[in-house]
From TrEMBL:
The keyword NADP does not apply. Keywords: Bacterial flagellum biogenesis. It holds the Pfam family FlgN. SUPFAM superfamilies: FlgN-like. This is Flagellar protein FlgN. It comes from Aliidiomarina minuta.
Length: 141
């Protein structure tokens, strides 16, 4: 019975490692702005996350669940799983930062394009943010 619990923990670790690998691929796709690849990665991540959730439920409902905290071999596996989860969380934060930076660049480009079409100019505020205002054509010296 405890052996089955160990197998569940191994399966959980494998799923988390697959998720980490997908996060690395996701980061590359974000940097390259490869939307089709990102769509596939999102689908794959959903499948893995569903599996992780199912395995987690099986572990929680296992009759000898408490053995995880007492048996050295299971405790070691639990620690490894926690480390993998921490890495997943860090990867998510990094990928989120890449998304925010990309969106910021897109917003700047959008403002520039809108200013070009509307006859306004783009300048910068004292905080370094872009600002759209009327072009200098209306100033008469």
């Amino acid at each position: 019975m405890v052996a089955m619990l160990g197998e569940l923990l191994d399966q959980q670790a494998d799923q988390l490692q697959q998720l980490i690998d997908l996060q690395a691929a996701e980061k590359e796709a974000l940097i390259k702005r490869d939307a089709p690849v990102l769509d596939q990665i999102t689908e794959d991540k959903e499948k893995i996350l569903n599996t992780i959730q199912q395995v987690d439920k099986s572990i929680a409902e296992h009759p000898q669940h408490d053995a995880i905290n007492h048996q050295p071999e299971l405790l070691e596996k639990r620690t490894a799983i926690q480390q993998l989860m921490d890495k997943c969380q860090l990867n998510n934060e990094v990928n989120g930062q890449v998304v925010r930076m990309t969106l910021g660049r897109i917003q700047d480009l959008k403002q520039t394009l809108q200013a070009t079409q509307s006859g306004t100019t783009i300048t910068y505020t004292d905080k370094g943010k872009t600002y759209s205002g009327p072009s200098g054509k209306s100033i008469k010296a």
